[in-house]
Amino acid sequence: MKFFKKIILGAAAAVVCTGLFAQEQKVQKKDDSSTTKSETSVENEYLNDMDGTVILTLAQSEEYDNKLVALQYLENSVEKGNTSDEVVAALDQLAGEGINTQTRKNGRLMNNFPDIRRQACLLLGKVGGEHSKNTLKNIAIADNEPMVQAAAIRSLGDIGINENDEITEAVAYANLRNRVLNPTGSMAFEVLNTFEKLAGNTQNKKTMIDEISHIAADNHYNSAVRRRALDILKNMKVDNSDASGTKKSSGPSASSGSTAAN
To answer: What share of the chain is helix, strand, coil (3-state, %, to 5)?
Structure first.
């Protein structure tokens, strides 16, 4: 009988010890988890500080490789929702690199990096807002590289702001200039997509329709681009006031575009 009592007492002690050990392990895991979270928070805070200081410095550097590194950090920041003033300022810097800010040596432009400008324009489209819209509008009009203009125009369509038709007018003018000097199908395709996105926010569609019609009839563009233009024209609902409107593009717009197309 005493032997069985010893066995029972031993088993009970083992159970108690096991419970205490398990509880201790849970506490230890909780402490480790808290430490990990704390370390992660510190790391994120450090990266956010880096976004605001180092990235802007990298973007303003004259070195091409530094600008590429800045773009990588900026893309990561934007994807995480960080659109601080410093991030936007860095994107503005890169989007206008070689256009708004020029570095010359013996008369030669040293910072003409269209691939950098293109990527920055696409990221500004993800940032959105009035400031990004204004920057992209200026780039679409002022840049001389179709791939950069196309990226700016795509982002303008994604942002979707078109007060007083300012964006559709700017896009029409940008494409008019391009098709007169150097018709580029990829840019025309982005123009068509943006027109389609902004059609519902456009008060007077005449300039838009004129430019789409020019694209549809211009044999400099391939058949896929021209078909896309025709499809948009067919699907666009235009009231009589739009069809007979007299509003023109702010640049040498639709009227001079007709002469160029012919």
So the answer is: 75, 0, 20
